[in-house]
């Protein structure tokens, strides 16, 4: 029986994981999708050259949209035969030389180019395109360039790649279609004047609509991810599946659960956050049912302040130093400080409280260095910082006073003097 | 789940379970990236490694500290994945790899030879990634998306993830926090050391003493009561506890106290513990110096006049030039008490010169102060080569530093690099009262 239950659980887990990771079909934004599809088709069918930018916030489905369109076109028409797809990513192809190398290999032209010496970048690129041209305008193969993280290409030297690509798309050379994908709204401003003038200024925006930010939409998505559907490749015991699905339906109707999701939607509507929460829950599944508490727990960890957790890991000495820094920045309105100032403030505190063990200077210094390595404080270099002694280097506190107070409150077993010192208004 | 693993790493149960859940099911789809953070020696790397080993997950662990350039990083990852062993005579990597593009290409190529699905790449001290090329961190966080192979990247760091946010923005990985051990947990973990300590005592004294866990825990309690407030780092505490345990057992070995007499042992150890707190993190070898109370001498043996030059330099660095007349001239005339002077007495410590660091001074001023403080001692020394040689040797010793460009032969500027503790020691050795001549203290 035990083994059977294990299997059932495993089945459910696999189904849910597949739900999460499978490249689901693109939904919504019909208008934009048609626009992109139309653009690509015109390039391939009629040999028109086009350029467009797809702009939208992170994880709004930009790449998914393009992939979806391309998959559809490739499955249907003679798209594959008539065109070549070149995908570049600004994160990977960090300069024009790499981009060109990648373009060559994606066009399968390495053996043609091999051994040739090119004078300029443009020459090289146009040679590549000329290789594709077998006859007239209508018979040559068109090239579809998809530039992900388009904004990063704008920082390449002289924007040579972009200039050449847009230049080709403007002049009636080989038909190419350039699709840029970016999340920067000001991307047009990044283009140089000569590049900008060659761009078609076709911009397609993908913004989440208000309905996508609502609770109902989030619940819909949750249902999509959690329900094990009928037409699913994986075999699963129908009884187990029905039990699971009814459990999910029940939970989706639960009022407390809705409150939790409402809270989540108010914090973050991105798909990534929702998925991360689901991953944590699904991977932790021990029984074949979901509970509201699981979600509550995940929301709690999402809302947790990581800095606070790090502060609680500090020892008493380091917390004392942070309190001294907090007092300093409160008194001097956020001015920077150095080790000597913090140390003398700390010594003053130790002297007034006989219970607190005094710690030698070198250990305090080490504690300060630990705070620095945790990046709770940041050194500022005022004129040749390397030359000044460590004790006199100025730094800023990167933690909010309220965070220090909160951490002091939450850390158990602190000496009462320290707690009082932290809450006292003067030091 | 492996109960041995949980037992061998006390108080890491939730973290082990979390990792186990993420990596145990190899035939199921895998997550993209995990971020593991927590204080020093909280067991991050060990737990990850052991979990992956026990689950027999194909993995590679790279420490970013070893990879100071992206090329070394890429090549060592590829070496580990491919199992390529470097030949010491002709160390050629598996593949030359300068940039992310080549790296991804090589990964895809490797995937054809070895199935890389389900591979886990562990990057330790991941905060170093931020100091390398901008594209590394976001690329590693979405390695699966870029390669199309189900590779999971585990980042380990001491920082919170918000320190990794960049302008370009990466993706949020799944985060696992390793909390620092508290006092009770530390006591339990340190008491696992008992067998090691038995052997250590045997080796150190060539004599075996029988003690039980209570005796050892008793010692650890004393030890932690001194150390816990200033250190929660397990590996440092373990090191210190071992060193001091030898000292703790000494009276028993010498038959001064019995093993039951815990009060006497406590009286014996408590000053030793306090003084060894001073060398926390310093890892000084105390075995050679017989007496631990004897502090390491903070000063170098300097010649007499060099000491005075150093003192003069300190005074020049930490006194404002306008106070020189008042401090160093014998007949500077009567001082009028001004409102400013009264204010000076209520000067807050943050404005003290000794807290703000040394100010540069010119050579002439150094000489003037030097001769003025020598005068007090009725010591005459002419201005000659010796003085100049002393100054340059002080610079060589980094006790003074040259601030201005060395191409100006005239009016060179210097700064004094020693702290107050040090200069107090030096001035005491020549019988000079430094506080009298510091404007921060002279009004007291």
TrEMBL record, chain A:
Residues 226-408 form the Origin recognition complex subunit 4 C-terminal domain. Residues 53-203 form the ATPase AAA-type core domain. Keywords: ATP-binding, DNA replication, DNA-binding, Nucleotide-binding, Nucleus. Its main location: nucleus. It is found in: Nucleus. It holds the Pfam family AAA. One of its GO terms (biological process) is DNA replication initiation. SUPFAM superfamilies: P-loop containing nucleoside triphosphate hydrolases. Gene3D superfamilies: P-loop containing nucleotide triphosphate hydrolases. Signal peptide: none annotated. GO terms for molecular function: ATP binding; ATP hydrolysis activity; DNA replication origin binding. InterPro entries: ATPase_AAA_core, ORC4, ORC4_C, P-loop_NTPase. One of its GO terms (cellular component) is nuclear origin of replication recognition complex. Belongs to the ORC4 family. Component of the origin recognition complex (ORC) that binds origins of replication. This is Origin recognition complex subunit 4. It comes from Psylliodes chrysocephalus.
UniProtKB/TrEMBL annotation, chain B:
GO terms for molecular function: ATP binding; DNA replication origin binding. It comes from the Eukaryota. Residues 216-275 form the ORC5 lid domain. Keywords: ATP-binding, DNA replication, Nucleotide-binding, Nucleus. The keyword Ubl conjugation does not apply. Residues 10-154 form the Orc1-like AAA ATPase domain. SUPFAM superfamilies: P-loop containing nucleoside triphosphate hydrolases (SSF52540). Pfam families: AAA_16, ORC5_C, ORC5_lid. It is found in: Nucleus. Residues 302-438 form the Origin recognition complex subunit 5 C-terminal domain. GO terms for cellular component: nuclear origin of replication recognition complex. GO terms for biological process: DNA replication initiation. PANTHER family: ORIGIN RECOGNITION COMPLEX SUBUNIT 5. Belongs to the ORC5 family. This is Origin recognition complex subunit 5. It comes from Psylliodes chrysocephalus.
